[in-house]
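User: Hi! I'm a student and our assignment asks us to look at how structure tokens line up with a sequence. Could you show me two examples?

Assistant: Happy to help. In each example below, the sequence comes first and the structure tokens follow. Example one:
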Amino acid sequence: MAAETGIPAVDTVLVWGGAVSLTLGLVTIAWRGIRGGVRLGRRVDQFIDDWQGEPSRAGVPARPGVMERMGGLEDRMGGVEADLQRIKHELYPNSGGSLRDAVDRANERLALLCPTTVVPGGDARGDRRPVPGDTEQDDPGDGPTAPGDASDLTSGDTRDSAGDSHEGG
């Protein structure tokens, strides 16, 4: 370098100052790299301990590893799947013993007893219109009903859950 101040003592201090600054900068960069590596190493070590689990030691209980915990979850999920199958059995029509079948039977009985229902939003006279899904029956407002018509039924005229007929008398 040709840049000199002309004073040898100042030039020497500047050269040594530059060398010390460069050395401190390199040491700082190396220190930060080493410190980051040590932190990363600790985290990797903790991850491996968590993954594999740790045996018990004085005052600290054992911790199961990830695979051991996954096995426990699979065991518990087997019970949930069995419960889900039982619930699913109750929600869909099947052999006649499910909750859905019981609700369907109750709806059929109700349709026989009440062939029409007041529709929400009807006018002030209380218009009665058939509800979708009802069987076509005579409207009670159409006049007298014939004997044996669905409007003459009572709860004793329907079949019970065992299929036995109860005729009113």
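Example two works the same way, sequence first and then tokens:
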Amino acid sequence: MDERGEHEEYLGLPVAAAERLAADRGRRIVRVLEPGEMITLEYREGRLNLAARDGVVERCWEG
């Protein structure tokens, strides 16, 4: 599966389920971001970012 297809699979999942899925796929670094949370902009290869609202993933991207 390509990266974009993988990322779409996280959308709509509860954060805990998304983190388990990421771990099952070998992701070692998962960052969960809530609305309005400040983030650093450095790129980290292999990191999966999950933007969540009310405990549900709304957006997902690499770096």
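Here is something you could point out in your write-up. The radius of gyration is 11 Å.
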